[in-house]
Write a structure and sequence with these properties.
Layout: E1 3-4, E2 17-20, E3 27-28, E4 45-53, H1 60-79, E5 86-93, H2 97-106, H3 110-127, E6 134-137, H4 141-156, E7 160-170, E8 175-177, E9 182-186, E10 192-196, E11 204-213, H5 219-228, E12 233-234, H6 236-245, E13 253-254, E14 256-258, E15 267-268, E16 271-276, H7 278-283, H8 285-288, E17 304-309, H9 313-326, E18 334-338, E19 341-343, E20 346-347, H10 358-365, H11 367-377, E21 384-386, H12 388-411, H13 444-465, H14 469-490, H15 503-524, H16 529-538, H17 586-590
Parallel strand pairs: 4-5, 4-17, 5-6, 12-18, 17-18, 19-21
Antiparallel strand pairs: 1-3, 2-7, 7-8, 7-11, 9-10, 11-13, 14-16, 15-16, 19-20
Catalytic activity: tRNA(Met) + L-methionine + ATP = L-methionyl-tRNA(Met) + AMP + diphosphate
Domain Methionyl/Leucyl tRNA synthetase: 46-410
EC number: 6.1.1.10
């Protein structure tokens, strides 16, 4: 049982003054299972993206968040198949002052703006192959019910009180800021104005009576949660950053705004003069999706993994876990954090005219091509740079030439006239290096290839577990290069099917290459689902043979039967990934917004 110490009066500094209007004596709240490990966690997984603010159209940063979650979810489904073992939610955040203001500027009702922009997100994600199981909008009735119930739980536990809050407020970031996080800079008119030190967005001094959450009481429980599980926030630098933030004073958090100032939101239960703070409203979406407050949510919540951008780390790693603990629930299982995308070394900005339209990129580079680029080049630890030439070079090199060329070569009628999975000859490729004989054609590098591809599924799984999808793709690409080297080294096009001495080795070279391609196609399914389906279909791999549990690489090498040996390949599907015409990259630039 955790005991909340008596609330102390916050210091009356200009940056954050709170005057209590009711008793601030010691409180208790229920058992918080910080170390709980429900067995359901082993069977279920629940992935979430942030819900995206609808004040502007989606950009590639939004798509990147969704793709990371989509790939993690798809890979988990390959590892643990079953219709009810994995859930994945995304959606749109539709309340708050920023939406209210944007709608007023556009001359439309907030609901109309939300409908229009939310539809843009849904359309983009559908076109990008984002296989979410739920798209939530915070204007839905089910969400309002969940938020108001969550509020009542906090109130019943004595964690909300009414007070006068005075401090800097940033409407763009929808958050209050202490004096230390505010600076002055020259505005567009030349006058000095106050801005957020972190985001650069303007702030305004605000003084109003709000409901306040006793956040200060959760500093030690949050520190313990983070120290008990060093992997709970990944990558590690972000885990370290949160611990550093918790070394500082943790002031109580204003969790409502005056309805006369902010009317576009969810009213505080029993007090229509107040609107629930947009971040509390938004964060509860993760519970709404899994059925909160009904009992069903309890079997999913302990399995939750949030995928978020680094700019909203504090909300997800401090405010949200504290609110959950306050409601008697455990913090999220994992928080995966990624950095941002720049364009040619500059931050994306409408004023610079360099915001990249993700829809144009999907059309230009294909859906699978752009998915592959973002997940192959995106490194969560630091900001990643986008420019058109980089996309073309990567996709032509790794998908069109290396992977596509390998498939085309091994399935071409000239090299594989029977259109089958050729037989493997153990005499030509014995499983013990160093054996000699007239039939042995294998070289030392070939054993290295077998070892590399045999270990690839586990290596890829480890990278997914560590939120390093880019490393998983790098490992696959490295093995593709090794396989191309294997084929080039043995030059099967120089061998003759009619020659009884050469034919067994020719079949073995193709068999090994096709087995490698089967592994690559299986492992690429989470990132390039359509391309992987095309590859596996051309190899004759059925839908029931594409899970990681069925990925038994090169069984004939280990003395076991191969279910694919002698099987006819699938129908010809054309180029796996056509090379991109570099002379047309200007089309993407012309469509930037």
């Amino acid at each position: 049982m955790w005991r909340i110490p008596a609330l102390r009066l916050l210091g009356c500094t200009r940056s954050s003054r709170v005057f209590l209007f009711q008793d601030a004596g010691p409180r208790h709240y229920g058992s918080c299972p910080l170390g709980a490990r429900d067995e359901v966690r082993d069977r279920r997984a629940y992935f979430t993206t942030p819900i995206f603010y609808v004040n502007a159209a989606p950009h590639i940063g939004h798509l990147y968040s969704a793709l990371l979650a989509d790939a993690l979810c798809r890979h988990r489904s390959l590892r643990v198949p079953g219709a009810v073992t994995t859930r994945f939610s995304t959606g749109t955040d539709e309340h708050g002052l920023k939406i209210q203001q944007a709608a007023a500027i556009a001359g439309v009702a907030p609901a109309e703006l939300c409908d229009r922009v939310s539809a843009q997100f849904q359309r983009l994600f559908r076109e990008a192959g984002i296989a979410c199981t739920d798209f939530i909008r915070t204007t839905e009735v089910r969400h309002r019910r969940a938020v108001q119930h969550f509020w009542e739980v906090l109130r019943a536990r004595g964690l909300l009180y009414k007070g006068l809050y005075e401090g800097w407020y940033c409407a763009s970031d929808e958050c209050f800021l202490p004096e230390a996080k505010v600076t002055k800079q020259q505005g567009p008119s030349g006058d000095a104005c106050h801005v957020s030190l972190e985001s650069g967005h303007p702030v305004a001094w605000t003084k109003e009576e709000n409901y306040i959450f006793r956040l200060s009481q959760f500093r030690e429980p949050l520190q313990q949660w983070l120290r008990d599980d060093p992997q709970v926030i990944t990558p590690e630098p972000f885990h370290h950053a949160v611990l550093q933030w918790l070394e500082e004073e943790l002031p109580d958090l204003s969790v409502s705004r005056r309805s006369s100032h902010l009317h576009w939101g969810i009213p505080v239960p029993g007090d229509d003069s107040q609107t629930i703070y947009v971040w509390l409203d938004a964060l509860v979406n993760y519970l709404t999706v899994i059925g909160y407050p009904d009992a069903e949510f309890k079997s999913w919540w302990p399995t939750t993994s949030h995928i978020i951008g680094k700019d909203i780390l504090k909300f997800h790693a401090i405010y949200w876990p504290a609110l959950l603990l306050g409601a008697g629930m455990s913090p999220p299982h994992r928080i995966y954090v990624h950095s941002h995308w720049t364009v040619c070394g500059q931050k994306m900005s409408k004023s610079l005219g360099n915001v990249v339209d993700p829809k144009t990129c999907l059309d230009r580079y294909t859906v699978d091509g752009f998915r592959y680029f973002l997940l192959r080049q995106g490194v969560p630890n630091w900001d990643c740079d986008y420019y058109d030439e980089k996309v073309v070079k990567l996709l032509d090199s790794e998908l069109a030439d290396a992977l596509g060329g390998l498939l085309n070569r091994c399935t071409a009628k000239r090299l594989n006239p029977s259109g089958t999975y050729p037989a493997f000859c153990a005499a030509c490729f014995p499983n013990k290096p160093g054996l000699v004989g007239s039939s042995v054609r294998v070289q030392a590098e070939d054993y290295a290839l077998v070892r590399a591809v045999a270990s690839l599924p586990k290596q890829v799984a480890d990278h997914y577990d560590n939120f390093q999808i880019y490393k998983a793709l790098e490992a696959v690409s490295s093995c593709v290069r090794q396989t191309n080297g294997f084929v080039q080294r043995h030059a099967p096009w120089k061998l003759n099917w009619e020659n009884p001495v050469e034919a067994p080795w020719l079949g073995t070279v193709l068999h090994v290459a096709l087995e490698c391609l089967r592994v690559f196609g299986t492992l690429l399914q989470p990132v390039t689902p359509t391309l992987a389906d095309k590859l596996l279909s051309q190899l004759g791999v059925s839908a029931t043979e594409r899970g990681l549990g069925e990925l038994n690489f090169l069984p004939r090498f280990y003395g076991h039967p191969c279910p694919f040996e002698g099987r006819r390949l699938g129908p010809e599907t054309g180029l796996l990934f056509p090379r991109l015409d570099q002379s047309r990259t200007w089309l993407v630039k012309a469509h930037r917004t």
